[in-house]
Amino acid sequence: MSIRAKYEKELQGIFDSLVLMCRHIEAAIEKCVKALTDCDFELARDVFEEEKQIDEMERSIEQACFKILLMETPVARDFREVSAALKMITDLERIGDQARDIAEIAIQFKDEGYIKKLTDITKMAVIVIQMVKDGVQAYINRDLELARSLDATDDKVDGLFNKVMADCIELVKKDPDNAEQAVMLLMINKYLERIGDHAVNIGEWVEFALTGSHPKKIK
Amino acid sequence: MDNKFNITVKNCDLYYGDFQALKNINIDIDEREVTAFIGPSGCGKSTFIKTFNRMNDLIEDCRITGEIKIGGENIYAKGTDVTLLRKNIGMVFQKPNPFPMSIYDNVAFAPRTFGIKKKTELDAIVERSLKQAGLWGEVKDRLRKNAMGLSGGQQQRLCIARALAAEPKILLMDEPTSALDPISTGKIEELINELKVDYTIVIVTHNMQQATRISDKTAFFLLGEIIEYAKTGELFSNPKDKRAENYITGRFG
Ligand SMILES: Nc1ncnc2c1ncn2[C@@H]1O[C@H](COP(=O)(O)OP(=O)(O)O)[C@@H](O)[C@H]1O
Ligand SMILES: [Mg+2]
Question: Residue B1 above 50 pLDDT?
Fold first, then answer.
C-alpha cells in the first residue's frame, strides 16, 4: 500500500470512530431527555453508560490522531483535518458530560409532576441532536455549507432557551414553591443551550479544516 | 552591495541551449532569513540557486535574461566583479566536497585567495569559522590532518566553515543534508538557525520537515516556475495552489 493510501485509510478510521461517537451522543441526549419526560430512572442510568463510552471514544480517537501526527507528519489540509478532529472530540466529550448532567437532574425529579410542560425542552433536544449530527457529517463529507449553517440553527436553540427561562421566572413569581423545580429546569435548559454552542464549535473546526481559516480567528 | 543582502529577481528566464529551465521567475528574498526551495527533481531549484553567484557563467550554452539584484545591484550588469560576488555568496553542495588537503588549509583557502598571509590572522579566521560551523571542538587537535578523513557530517560542516571563512553575506545550500545521518543533519539545521542572525540563507531541500523546521519562507517550484511562495507556516498549513498541496502531501503523480 502506498504511504498516501495508508494515510487515507487511517483518516477513514478516524471518520468511522467519529460517526460511532456521534451515535453515542445522540443516544445520550435522547435518553436523558426521555428519562426526564417519562421519569424513567433506568434510562437515566443508561446515559451514564453512554457517557463512559463517549469518554473512551474520545481517548481512542485522540490516540489515532496523535499517531497520525507523529508517524505521518501531515501538512496542508491533511494536517488541518487531523487537528480539527482533535479539537472536535473535546467538544463531543463535553456534550457527553452535559447529557450526563441532565440525567443526574432527571433522577432527582421522582414522580412529583412538573410545574410546566416540557415541550420546549424536548424541542431543544431534537434541534441540538441534529446539530451535533450535522457537525460530524459536515466534517466527514467536507461540507462547508452544512458546517456554516450551524450558527443559524443555534439561534433557534437560543430562542427556546430564552423562552424557557422567561417561563420559569414567571412560575417562581406566581408561586415560590415552584422555585426548586424551576431552578432544575433552568439548569437543564442551560446544558442544552451549551450543547448547541459545542455543535457550533464543531462547525467552526470543520470550516478551519476545509478553508484553513477559523471563523473566530485572532485579528 | 555594502550592507543590504536581500535578493530580488524580476522576470528571470534561463535557457540551456534550446531548453528553458527557468520561466519568468519573480521573487523577493529577505536578508537574515532562511528561504527554502522545494519541488520535484529537475524543476530548476539548483539552476536557480546558482544564478545568485553566477555559477551558471561556467556552463556553456547557458543564457539568462531578466534581472537579479542583490542589495539593489544588478549582478549581471557589465562590470560586476564576479570574484567579489562569489566571496559574498558562499555555496554548500549536496555532497560534501572538501579539498584533498588539511582541515586547516581547507578553511584558510578563501582568505589566502583574498590575500591574507599572516599566520596569526589566518589562525584566527580558521578557529572562528570552525567554531561557527560547530566543528572546532571535534577537530582542533587535528587541524593538520587531511580533511578526507573526516566523517560525512564533519566534512559537510567543514565545507560550511570553508564557505564562512570567506566572510560571505549570503549562504546558498543545495540539499546540504541529503547525504547525512539524522544527527549530522540536526547539527547542520541548528547551525543554519544560528547563522541566519547574520546571513541570508537560501536552502534547497527535499525534506519537507526540514523546510518547516528551519525556513521562514518557502518557494515551491514546478517545471521551471515558482508556483507558490509564502511564509513557511502558511505554505505547509494552508497552501493556496492545488499543485503545491499535492506535492507536499505526497499526492503527486
Ligand atoms: N548543464 C545543464 N545543461 C543542460 N540542461 C541542464 C543542465 N543542468 C540542468 N539542466 C536541466 O535543467 C532542469 C533543471 O535542473 P536542476 O536545476 O538541476 O533541477 P533541480 O535542482 O530542481 O533538481 C532539468 O531538466 C535538467 O535536466
Ligand atoms: Mg538540484
Answer: no
d(CA A190, CA A186): 6
B16: Cβ below 6 Å to ligand 1? yes
Q: Are strands B19-29 and B7-16 parallel, antiparallel or unpaired?
A: antiparallel
Name the residue among B237, B238, B250 with its Cβ closest to that of A3. B250
Question: In this predicted structure, what is the pLDDT of residue B131?
Answer: 93
Residues of B in contact with A212 (CB under 8 A): 237-238
Residue B253 has pLDDT above 70, yes or no: no
Contact: B248, A212; criterion CB under 8 Å: no
* Domains, in order of start, for chain A: 3-211 (1.20.58.220)
Write the residue with the smallest CA distance to atom 21 of ligand 1: B46
- Measured in angstroms, the CA of B129 and the nearest CA of chain A are apart by 35
Q: What angle do CA A206, A207, A211 make, to 5 degrees?
A: 125
What are the extents of the domains in chain B?
7-96+169-248
Its pTM stands at 0.84
- With an 8 Å Cβ cutoff, are B250 and A80 in contact? no
d(CA B74, CA B55): 15
What 8-state DSSP symbol labels residue B74?
Answer: E
Q: Which amino acid residue places its CA nearest to atom 4 of ligand 1? A: B16
Confidence of residue A219 (pLDDT cuts 50, 70, 90): low
Which residue shows C-alpha cell 588549509? B105
Residues in chain A: 219
| Residue B113 to residues A79, B57, B116, B122, B171, Cα–Cα distance (Å) | 49, 20, 7, 12, 19
**CATH classification number, B7-96+169-248, choose in 3.40.50.1980, 1.10.3720.10, 2.60.40.3600, 3.40.50.300:** 3.40.50.300
Give the pLDDT confidence of A162-215 residue by residue, as tens digits. Answer: 999 999 999 999 999 999 999 999 999 999 999 999 999 999 999 999 999 999
What pLDDT is stored for residue A170 in this prediction? 94
ipTM above 0.85, yes or no: no
**Minimal CA–CA distance to A88: which of A1, A219, A2, A209?**
A209
Judging contacts by C-beta atoms under 8 Å, the chain A residues touching residue B227 are none
- Render pLDDT for A133-145 as a digit per residue (tens, 0 to 9): 999 999 999 999 9
Which amino acid, one-letter code, is at A90? Answer: T
C-alpha cell at position B195 = 547563522
Better-scored residue on pLDDT, B65 or B253: B65
Residue type, A69: L
Residues B30, B32, B35: CA angle, nearest 5 degrees: 60
Torsion angles phi and psi, residue B27, rounded to 5: -160, 145
Longest pairwise C-alpha distance within chain A:
70
Could you say which residues from 234 to 253 on chain B have a Cβ atom under 8 Å away from some Cβ of chain A? 236-239, 245, 248-251
